[in-house]
Structure formats: structure tokens, C-alpha cells
Specification:
There is one protein chain. By secondary structure, the chain is mainly α. The chain has a single domain, classed as Hypothetical protein af1432, CATH 1.10.3210.10. About 65% of the residues lie in helices and about 5% in strands. It has ten helices and two strands. The chain has a two-stranded antiparallel ribbon with strand order 1-2. Helix 2 packs antiparallel against helix 3, helix 3 packs across helix 6 and helix 7 packs antiparallel against helix 9. This is HD domain-containing protein.
Length: about 200
């Protein structure tokens, strides 16, 4: 049985109202001025802007419009699961079986609020981002790793200082993802990040 126009709008706004809760999910990363933690809604918007502005760093075959769509929805599961900082618990917490299972369950619930012609395609886009295998997803994942690096640099160290991150850990947890999706961007970011870590060792 086809959805009525009224039921369709009810479902669309149910999803949009639920998505508003992402603005209340606080991240470990602060604003670039260090004044307060950013929330996941702000993070998602900022990443979409990153994709728009840094599109020239994308590899062949990357569809920036798809990347922007991917980044706008990539953290919606944090409404249920919360943000798990990549540098927390030795960098393993974000990849735990428990977290992965909880995020999949959250994706079922949140994307399930949408009409059937909208929910499954957006959930598939979220899964594509998580897998980070397609050119679009690799670039999106690279930007997702770059943005906190830039915030940390501008805020005096941010989560690097909080979690006592080493440069080797940054390379393994962040650099590998950036280099895979945007190698030129990682080369530039390295030149900015490495001096910060060297300065910390000298002080």
C-alpha cells in the first residue's frame, strides 16, 4: 500500500526532527578557538564544507556531491551511540565490536524513520562511508580525519594533549586514512602537524 502524502511528510519530518538531536552530541574535538567542544551536528556541517572547498584534493572518479551527502549523514548514529574519540582507549574503542553493533542498530532505527524510498539508500550511503572502500568514501573518510587535525592545531593541541597522542599514533590512526583518500592533503597536513609534536618533545 502506497504512503499518503501526509504520511510521507510525517515520516520525513520525524527523521529531520530526530536528526536535530545530533546538535546535542558533544565531541572531544573543540572549536578552532578552543572555547568549547564542537557538537556532531557542527562537525557534519563543517565536513560538508570541507568537501566543497577541498574538492580539488579528491582523486579520479570522486563525486563531490555524493561525498557531501555522505558527510552530512555519516555521524547520525551518534544520536544513539555518542561520539567515541579516535584517540581514546589506545585508539581501539572506535573500532570495537560493541560499538560497531550499536552503530548498526542505530542506523536501522534512524534511517528506518524515513519513507522506504529514502531510508534504504541513505543507510547504504552510511554503510559505504563506514566501509571506506569506494573512491567517494575514501575521500570522505580522509576529510573526517583532517578536520580534527586542523582544529587541534589551531586550539593548541586539543585532543592530542588530552590523550597524550604521539606523532606515530597520529600517523597510524589518522594519517593512513588521509593518505589513502587524499594523499596530497596528508603531505600538507604532515608539514603542519609534525612541528607541533616535535615542539612538545623539546619542551
Amino acid at each position: 500500500m502506497a504512503q499518503s502524502a501526509n504520511d510521507r511528510l510525517e515520516a520525513q519530518f520525524a527523521f529531520l526532527n530526530e536528526a536535530d538531536r545530533l546538535k546535542s552530541v558533544l565531541r572531544a574535538t573543540t572549536l578552532v578557538d578552543g572555547s568549547r567542544p564542537e557538537n556532531s551536528g557542527e562537525h557534519s556541517w563543517h565536513l560538508a564544507l570541507y568537501a566543497l572547498v577541498l574538492a580539488d584534493q579528491a582523486g579520479p572518479g570522486v563525486d563531490i556531491n555524493r561525498v557531501i551527502r555522505m558527510l552530512l549523514i555519516h555521524d547520525l548514529v551518534e544520536i544513539d551511540v555518542g561520539d567515541v574519540p579516535i584517540h581514546s582507549a589506545n585508539g581501539l574503542a572506535h573500532a570495537s565490536v560493541e560499538t560497531t553493533t550499536a552503530e548498526a542498530k542505530a542506523a536501522d532505527r534512524i534511517f528506518g524513520l524515513l519513507p522506504p524510498d529514502l531510508g534504504p539508500p541513505l543507510r547504504a550511503l552510511w554503510e559505504e562511508f563506514e566501509a571506506a572502500e569506494s573512491p567517494d568514501a575514501r575521500f570522505a573518510k580522509a576529510l573526517d580525519r583532517v578536520q580534527p587535525v586542523m582544529a587541534n592545531l589551531r586550539s593548541g593541541g586539543g585532543t592530542w594533549a588530552t590523550y597524550n597522542v604521539t606523532y606515530e599514533q597520529l600517523e597510524a590512526r589518522v594519517g593512513s586514512k588521509i593518505a589513502r583518500g587524499a594523499p596530497g592533503l596528508w603531505e600538507w597536513v604532515q608539514g603542519k602537524a609534525k612541528p607541533w609534536f616535535l615542539k612538545g618533545k623539546e619542551s
